[in-house]
Each structure stands twice: as C-alpha cells, then as structure tokens.
Design a protein that fits this description.
The chain is an alpha+beta fold. It contains 14 helices and 26 strands. Helix content is 32%, strand content 27%. Helix 3 runs antiparallel to helix 6 and helix 10 packs antiparallel against helix 11. The radius of gyration is 30 Å and the shape is globular. The relative contact order is 0.08. About 15% of the residues have low confidence.
C-alpha cells in the first residue's frame, strides 16, 4: 500500500523520487509526458491512522473494532473537507495549488490512504540554505504569508502549523503556504500524542501548548517567530546568536521560556518599525497581537513604501510625481552627459600632447624583462607540499566513512547566514542523522572523494556539499557565489561514542532515558549474531535498522514500566519486544540480549 498505488489512481503519472518525509507522511516528485511535453507535480501520501500504535492506544481506552472504524472514518471525512477547501483556493498567489486527491480504504486492516496531488515548488528550507534573505525579502515573506492567511480567514480556517517546512517558493518568487488543515486532522488521528511532538514545537503559540482557547492570531504569532529567526542570525528567541552549535537542551529551554510568557529579547541591527511589528505579532497575550493577518500585512506594506500612509495612495502620488519631473529630468541628465564627454575629450588631448612630441612616430617597444602578471588562478592548496597533512585529512575522512564502523561527526556552517548542519553516524551503525537548525532527520548520504575535494550528496536533492582540504567549501553548483560558501570540520572516535555524545548503560534507567533524553539507541543482539537497532530522534520519532531485514524503517513505540520488566512494544509487525532488566529479552519466543545508549 502507499505510493505503489499511484499508477492505479493516476495512470499517466510516474514517481520520480522521494523529496520529503515528515511526521504527516511522504511527498514524492511525479512526472507525466504527453505528446513530448513533460509536466512535474508533487503528491503527498498520508495514512489514517498513521501507525498501528494509534489503534493500540485507542483499544486501551475501550474502543472495539466497530468504534475504531467509525472514529477514523470521521477523521477521513473531515480530512476530505479540508482538502476541498484547499482546492477552492486553487490559483491564488500565496497558497499551494491542490490539483486533485484520492482516498483509498485499506482492504486488510482499519485505515485509509490519502493521496493529494499538488504543484511542485521549492521548499523554503532549501531556499534559505541557498540564499541570504534581505530585510525586504523577509518583509515580502511576511506579506505573502499574511495574504494566504487572509484567504483562509474568509473560509474560517486556522492553519496552526506555520513553520518553514510548510512554506514554499514559486518560480515567480512568491511565497506559498501549504498543508492547511493537515496538522489539525492528523492530531485527531493520534489523539494520545501532543501536537508539540510533530515538528511544530519551535513555532507553536503558547495557548495551544497550554490547551487554552485560541483564534487565528496563533498563525500570525508563528509567522512572527519565523521572521524573528530570519532577522536574528538564524536563531529563535532566547538562543545565543554567537554560538555555532545549539544543543537540544538549549533549544528546549528557549521554547520553555517563550511558552511561559517571558518577553522576547529585542532584535538588534534591524529596522525598528519591522522589529516592532514582529514583537507585536509574538505577544504572549493574544489580545495584544494583531487582530487579523490583514492588519499585520498593512503594517508590513507601509515599511516597503516608507510611509505610514495608505500604500495605494502613495503609489498614485508616485506616479504623478514621475510624470511631472520626467521631461525636465531627462533634459538635465542629457546636459550632464554632454558636459562629461567634452571634459573627457579635452583631458585626452592634453595627455597626448604632454607624453608625445607633435612629430613623434610610433615605434616598437623592446620586450619587457619582467613577465606580466599571470591571469590564471594559483594551484589549489592540496597540490602544495606544505599542505600534505590537510590532504591526508580528506583521505582520512573518506576512509573512516567508507571502511570503518567508527563514530563520526561532520559539522558544516554556511558562512552567509551561519546555518549549522551536523551529519553524524553512531558507532557500529550505518544510520546517518542530519541536524540542521530546527530539523533532525535520518538521511541516506552519498560520499564521493576525488583529487581536490570531498563531496556529500543526498537522495532528496540534486545539490551537494563540496568540502576542500583547507576547511572551506561550497553548497550546490556555484562555487564562487557568496551565499554558497561554507566552512567545515569533523571528528571521530574508533573506540566508543560514549566518549563524545552518548552515555551508555546496560539496563538500569532505560524507561527514564526513553522519556527524558532527546536521542536513544537500543541495541538488540540476536543469537545468530545479527543486530537490530532502534533509534529515537529528538522529535520523539523512532526508526529501526535491522541487518537481517535491510534498510531503515519508521516505527512507533509504546513503553510500560511494570512488573519489574521494561515492556517495549515497537509496532512494526504486531509482535512486541519484551526487555528484562537483566539485559535479556524475548520476541515471539526468540531470545535476545540488549543494551542502550543515550545522548543529552
């Protein structure tokens, strides 16, 4: 089930690649060809319920099969209404165009797969990685998102999930908002989980976290936080802008301070009027925020016009002024140009007379004894003998990644906006974790080594990180562009990752570690020598790597700390893993041993 059904739903469309994956589903790039014309689109695939764990949790609350079917069917019906709302807004400048959708009931279990076909756009995350946004760019972002929220207000829709992952860029440079209603409906399908565990935590309004009544100001609040971050050296409120690597505990503490109502620190080196708009949008008390997105939009537009007057009136005045001054202005400009030409001609004559006698004849100068400066670039540093040690570092990194099971951590910093990206592999693992600002996820990188560089590519994008031996590099395909430049470093440990980022315990404290630490690895060792690893990400998602099953799989988990046993129910094939405190366990009558590592 899933994307394999695409050709049954829309036979003319074929999958090109997986381009995104999150708590709410997967997004694929798709293509069709008709009479030599190729079209591209995107399709989002969402399952209701999202996993078997949702069913188990509701069964524990007393739901039987019939009531479960009714419960989730009502969610799917509401979901369809949300999608239809999005289709009615098709063709608007600032909302992602939804072309079609299909809902298919699963045949062998309770559940539905939802397919949403939409226009293919550039994600905001990729956009800001490749471009340094100016104040005017950020103001345009605010205006465009407010325009999208205006349209939704007309349909009584509250988005509740304004964040970088739900913003996109059109080929014409317009910012568009997507996933209206998705967060709300999927929260219903996972009723035992808080919305703050699905990626919204960094931008969510306090009243939602505190389970209080809320209104549309939660969306302008989240927009204000996003604009704050973009103007604050890519740091959300209460995070140190001078520290390159922000820990999970620092981020969590910053969010806690914001949710408790601590006033946001003022923005520095920013247009004061813009800073005031953002801080008003992010007021803790909803009554002190902008009442509507239209109100916030008008204030942002006034900055671009440089006046507090109605922007339309200002535009009319500007057009009148241009007409009045156009003809005199052209006359003055023409006179200035003519005078400049005359002066240059006179200077040229004087210079010629002072350097050459009137009867001088042209002669051939003898060849110069000094060579002219070379116009070719100097050889790259890796070719210099004195830099042989740094060349070895690139070879060492290549060898560690490809030929060892060492713990390794690569840190990449984009110079123009200070965005920090960490790529990390744990000891004895093939799992790579990518952490860039607010988003941590599993990736499948491709590593290449040549004579002058080391490059890292990812399946979800055609761009690559190119790393040079001197600690510099660039992102994407433009080496000399200022907004593509980066610096990098790496470290590794061949003994144990515990010395670096992980604490290690055999058994005691697992329940507490799973509940309280952002990253946990649980290692299952089978009697045949194979190993299964469950990894908890800092957004409370779990993935499984199994050497005898192959690949990475997203899984859900339920944990009970009862009867002196750790009962770990990894929902992957209906069979639980039972972990005892003596380091032993069993799954479907098959014994295993286990231990775990954690990171704080």
């Amino acid at each position: 089930m899933g994307i394999e059904q695409l050709n049954e739903i829309w036979p003319e469309w074929n999958v090109v690649d997986l381009i995104g994956e999150g708590s709410f589903g997967q997004v694929y790039k798709i293509m069709r060809e008709d009479h030599g014309i190729i079209d591209y689109a995107a399709v989002k695939v969402i399952s209701i319920p999202q996993n078997t764990g949702d069913l188990i949790a509701l069964c524990a609350e007393g739901y039987d099969e019939a009531s479960l079917h009714i419960y989730f069917e009502n969610i799917v019906t509401d979901f369809a209404k949300e999608i239809k709302h999005m289709i009615t807004m098709k063709g608007t400048a600032n909302i992602v165009n939804v072309e079609d959708y299909k809902i298919i009931k699963k045949s062998s279990e309770i559940g539905w797969d939802i397919f949403i076909r939409m226009e293919l756009l550039t994600s905001f995350i990729n956009y800001i990685t490749d471009k340094k946004m100016t104040e005017n760019d950020i103001i345009k972002l605010g205006i465009d998102v407010c325009s999208a929220l205006e349209l939704c207000a007309n349909k009584n829709i509250i988005h509740r999930d304004i964040k970088p992952e739900n913003i996109f860029i059109s080929p014409f440079g317009d910012f568009k908002v997507g996933d209206f209603g998705v967060a709300r409906e999927l929260e219903k399908s996972s009723g035992f989980r808080s919305m703050t565990t699905v990626g919204t935590y960094y931008y969510i309004a306090p009243e939602i976290v505190n389970s209080k009544k809320y209104n549309a100001t939660v969306d302008t609040y989240s927009l204000g936080l996003l604009m704050y971050r973009l103007l604050n050296n890519n740091r959300l409120p209460f995070l140190d802008i001078n520290v390159q690597l922000i820990s999970f505990s620092d981020r969590k503490n910053a969010v806690d301070r914001r949710i408790k109502g601590e006033p946001l620190p003022p923005l520095s080196n920013v247009n004061q009027q813009l800073a005031d708009i953002i801080l008003k949008a992010c007021q803790y008390d909803p009554s002190k925020r902008y009442k509507t997105a239209s109100e916030m939009k008008k204030c942002l537009e006034k900055i671009l016009t440089g006046s507090h007057e109605d922007p339309q009136k200002i535009t009319k005045k500007s057009h009148t002024s241009i007409k009045v001054i156009m003809i005199p202005g052209l006359i003055i400009i023409g006179a200035i140009i003519l005078i400049s030409i005359i002066i240059k001609l006179n200077n040229g004559k004087e210079t010629s007379q002072s350097t050459q006698p009137p009867d001088a004849v042209e002669t051939t100068s003898p060849p110069s004894t000094t060579e002219p400066p070379s116009t070719t670039e100097p050889p790259l540093k890796e070719n210099n003998i004195e830099n042989q040690e740094t060349i070895d570092l690139l070879d060492e990194l290549d060898n560690i990644i490809k030929n060892t099971n060492d713990w390794v951590r690569i840190e990449i910093i984009m110079i123009h906006n200070n965005i920090n990206t960490i790529l990390e592999r744990n000891l004895n693992s093939t799992i790579w974790i990518m952490d860039d600002s607010d988003n941590q996820r599993i990736v499948d990188p491709e590593f290449l080594r040549d004579d002058i560089s080391f490059s890292i590519g990812f399946k979800v994008t055609t761009n690559r990180y190119i790393l040079f031996e001197d600690g510099t590099g660039y992102f994407g395909g433009t080496r000399n562009a200022d907004d593509h430049q980066l610096k990098w470093s790496f470290e590794y440990d061949s003994q144990t990752s515990a010395d670096k980022t992980f604490g290690i315990y055999q058994t005691e404290g697992l329940y507490s570690a799973v509940e309280n630490y952002p990253m946990v690895n649980i290692y299952i060792n089978w009697t045949d020598g194979s190993e299964t690893i469950f990894t908890k990400m800092n957004d409370d998602k779990w993935i499984m790597q199994s050497r005898n099953e192959g690949g990475l799989r997203n899984v859900s988990i339920q944990i009970n700390n009862e009867d002196d046993n750790y009962y770990i129910n990894f929902i992957i094939s209906g069979l639980p893993y039972t972990l005892h405190k003596d380091g032993k366990g069993i799954r479907n009558n098959e014994p295993f041993t286990w231990y775990y590592k954690f990171s704080n």
